[in-house]
Amino acid sequence: MVMCRNLLIYFNTELQQAVLELFAYSLQQSNGYLFLGKAETARPTKALFEMINKKWKIYKCISAR
Predict the structure, then answer these.
(1) pLDDT for 46-61, tens place per residue?
(2) Which of 14, 17, 35, 64 gives a 20 to 30 Å CA spacing to 6?
(3) pLDDT tens, residue by residue, 11-40
(4) Pairing mode, if any, of strands 2-4 and 33-36?
(5) C-alpha dihedral, 8 to 13 to 16 to 22, nearest 10°
(6) Cβ contact 44:18 at 8 Å
(7) C-alpha to C-alpha distance for 16 and 25, rounded to whole angstroms
(8) Residue 1 in contact with residue 33, Cβ under 8 Å?
């Protein structure tokens, strides 16, 4: 599980994507979950994460590049 609260909002789009890819890489072996804070504006790509709960911004890792 990776919980990221109010960190990605300070990164530009390219850096956000790089961090999300790193999270996906670290979560793929355990079919882990990503939890984002309410203020996070990053949107994990559908190729890496499946949305589990939109309101609480919970995503399940499905693959990594």
Answers:
(1) 889 999 999 999 999 9
(2) 64
(3) 999 999 999 999 999 998 888 999 999 888
(4) parallel
(5) 180
(6) no
(7) 14
(8) yes
Contacts 24+ apart (CB under 8 A), 16-24: 16/42, 17/42, 17/45, 20/44, 20/45, 20/48, 20/49, 21/48, 21/64, 21/65, 23/61, 24/48, 24/49, 24/61, 24/63, 24/64, 24/65
Output the CA torsion 41→42→44→45 (10° steps): 100
Burial 45-56 (b: 16+ CB within 10 A, else e): eeebbeeeeeee
Tell me the pTM.
0.85
- Residue 57 vs residues 20, 52, 63: alpha-carbon distances, Å: 14, 8, 18
